[in-house]
Specification:
26% of the residues lie in helices and 32% in strands. The chain has helices at residues 12-25, 38-45, 49-61, 90-96, 115-120, 167-175, 193-199; strands at 65-68, 72-75, 80-83, 101-111, 129-138, 141-150, 181-190, 206-215, 221-230, 234-237. The strands form three sheets. It has a six-stranded antiparallel sheet. The protein has a two-stranded antiparallel ribbon with strand order 1-2. Strands 3-10 form a two-stranded parallel sheet. This is GntR family transcriptional regulator.
Length: 242
């Protein structure tokens, strides 16, 4: 079936590329599925193989497709993109994108924190805080390791099973408190043995680390969280105006 492309408009390969990208975004071509072969695309668009190949190669370079020997050209799962504009929970982020959030690992303990965390929470030396370690998944795939320290002003359950859902919802339910304001610091690191094992990546893989300092009402320090995201699955963006 030939599509009616305007041959005086942008180059044909660009029009084909735009059409394939639209179908990916509309889920006509779903992540993990094969798109039509080059020969089939030639027939669909009524163009040369060179034109089709150029469109496909550019989509591969941009991360929309991947070519697998013996299989064909596959739609890649797109990175989860978070806009830095408001405080949101991981669960909320996933639900907005129609992605199923889950927790593979959750552990709570009480301990004396490092000096930087104690200073942020304005605690005396030796005072214990809550530390909650959680491995969160998107559609069943590990995507981020959270290590969260919470101010001991909170009264929280000490059972691991309590932390498999939204942490912020739990804090709201048990203490009627919530993080109203946060500052986030972003940096790039590489996966060590521990991160590689938990996030199911190779040692040395790129990791997006964020550190959140969260405040309750009246800017009372409540949360200090280190987040370790798989850089191949997640990215941030900021919208700037002048």
């Amino acid at each position: 079936m030939s599509l009616n492309f305007n041959k005086e408009a942008p180059p044909l390969y660009s029009q084909i590329k735009k059409d394939i990208k639209r179908k990916i975004k509309n889920s006509e071509y779903k992540p993990g599925e094969k798109i039509p072969s080059e020969k089939e695309l030639q027939e669909i668009f009524d163009v040369s193989r060179i034109t089709v190949r150029k469109a496909v190669l550019e989509l591969v370079e941009e991360g929309y497709l991947s070519r697998q020997r013996g299989i064909g050209t596959i739609v890649r799962r797109q990175k989860i993109e978070e806009k830095l504009s408001k405080v949101m929970t991981f669960t909320e982020e996933m639900q907005i994108r129609n992605i199923k959030p889950s927790t593979k690992l959750a552990k709570i303990e009480k301990l004396v924190p490092e000096h930087e965390i104690a200073e942020f929470m304005q605690l005396a030396e030796g005072v214990e805080v809550y530390r909650i370690t959680r491995l969160r998944c998107a559609d069943g795939e590990p995507i981020v390791l959270f290590i969260t320290y919470l101010n001991p002003v909170l009264s929280l359950p000490l059972t691991d099973k309590s932390y498999y859902g939204s942490l912020y919802k739990l804090i709201k339910k048990t203490n009627n408190k919530e993080v109203r304001k946060a500052a986030e610091y972003i940096e790039a690191i590489i996966a060590d043995n521990n991160l590689a094992e938990k996030l199911d990546v190779e040692i040395g893989s790129a990791i997006l680390k964020t550190t959140r300092r969260g405040y309750a009402d009246h800017e009372n320090p409540l949360e200090y969280t280190e987040c370790f995201y798989r850089a191949d699955k997640y990215r941030y963006f900021v919208e700037l105006n002048r």
